[in-house]
Amino acid sequence: MAQLETFNGPIIRQGQAYSDVLDLGNFVVVGLATPPQWTPGVVSITISPDGDNFYDVFDYNGSELLFNIVPETMIAVAPDLLLCARYLRLRSGTRERPVEQEAQRLFHTIGSASVYMQSPIQQSKREDQPC
User: Fold this and answer.
1) Whole-angstrom Cα Rg for the chain
2) CA–CA separation, 24 vs 31, rounded Å?
3) Given the DSSP bridges, would you call strands 55-56 and 43-48 parallel, antiparallel or unpaired?
4) How many Cα atoms occupy the beta-carbon half-sphere of 37 within 13 Å?
5) What is the model's pLDDT at position 129?
6) Which residues pair with 34 in a beta bridge?
7) Quick count: other Cβ atoms within 10 Å of Cβ 100?
8) Could you tell me where the beta strands, DSSP code E, fall in the chain?
């Protein structure tokens, strides 16, 4: 059974497109619980290994990683997509077209610690260098 942790956040504030920053510690994102209401738009992700420099996330095909939002649902996230993330920031909309939210939106992030327990190499790499 996976060791899961639920984080209260991140939060996108009213009138903003970017959330606050969520420190994931040694957890990998495996799910996002969406807020009960949502100003229409996708969610994109920026991540950081150090909390200072944030990077837009693109998939293996060179496409921006986007999630369609349906209020009060769980988005399953493949753990390998965000292995480099120590810090997570959500963006309402895309990198080219951010969408300001009409009210504060609280997400719940589900993290898994067991992803790093698959091999000593993966675990030591996570502790020393997030990517």
Assistant:
1) 14
2) 13
3) antiparallel
4) 7
5) 52
6) none
7) 15
8) 4-12, 22-23, 28-33, 43-48, 55-56, 66-67, 74-76, 87-92, 105-112
Q: How confident is the model at residue 121 (pLDDT cuts 50, 70, 90)?
A: very low
Q: Where are the domains of the chain?
A: 4-122
* Residues making up the chain, counted from first to last: 131
The CA-based angle 82-37-17, given to 5 degrees, is 55
Distance between CA 117 and CA 76 in Å, rounded? 20
Q: Of the CATH numbers 2.60.120.260, 2.30.42.10, 3.40.50.150, 1.10.730.10, which one belongs to the domain with range 4-122? A: 2.60.120.260
pLDDT in tens, 41-95: 899 999 999 999 999 999 889 999 999 999 999 999 988 888 889 999 999 999 9
Q: Report cis status (omega within 30 of 0) of the bond before 10.
A: yes
